[in-house]
Write a sequence for this structure.
């Protein structure tokens, strides 16, 4: 059975649409996160949620990074974050005391700011907050 040129073109277009649909579905079913450095300083060896980001200059941002899941405490991001500022290792700020509202998200797109604060011992720590927003203790 010989296919006409028009039928071959229709089949090719159908296959291309299926491929693009699959790529679109697989790309948008994941979690995509972008980070802005709002610490006022360059961060070296940045790691967020087990993903090595590397160096992130003050005021700059990453591209969107794919994650399988991302932890939140309520609506506030709560992933493990660490890096180096001026060759000093900086850990995350543990601001959540009870953790009763911790849940993970597996879909969507988010943009977060990386900020720094002092913990109760006076150590500089990093935390995440929704882009261009303040966390509850900043208000």
């Amino acid at each position: 059975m010989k296919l006409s040129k028009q039928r071959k073109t229709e089949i090719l277009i159908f296959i291309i649409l299926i491929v693009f649909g699959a790529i679109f579905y697989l790309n948008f079913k994941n979690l995509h996160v972008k980070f802005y450095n709002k610490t006022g300083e360059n961060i070296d060896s940045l790691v967020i949620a087990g993903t090595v980001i590397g160096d992130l200059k003050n005021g700059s941002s990453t591209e969107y990074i794919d994650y399988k899941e991302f932890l939140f405490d309520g609506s506030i991001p709560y992933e493990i974050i660490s890096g180096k500022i001026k060759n000093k290792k900086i850990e995350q700020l543990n601001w959540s005391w009870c953790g009763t509202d911790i849940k993970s998200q597996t879909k969507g797109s988010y943009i977060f700011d990386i900020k720094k604060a002092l913990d109760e011992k006076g150590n500089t720590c990093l935390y995440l907050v929704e882009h261009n927003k303040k966390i509850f203790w900043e208000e």
Residues 5-28 form the longest helix (24 residues). The helical segments are 5-28.
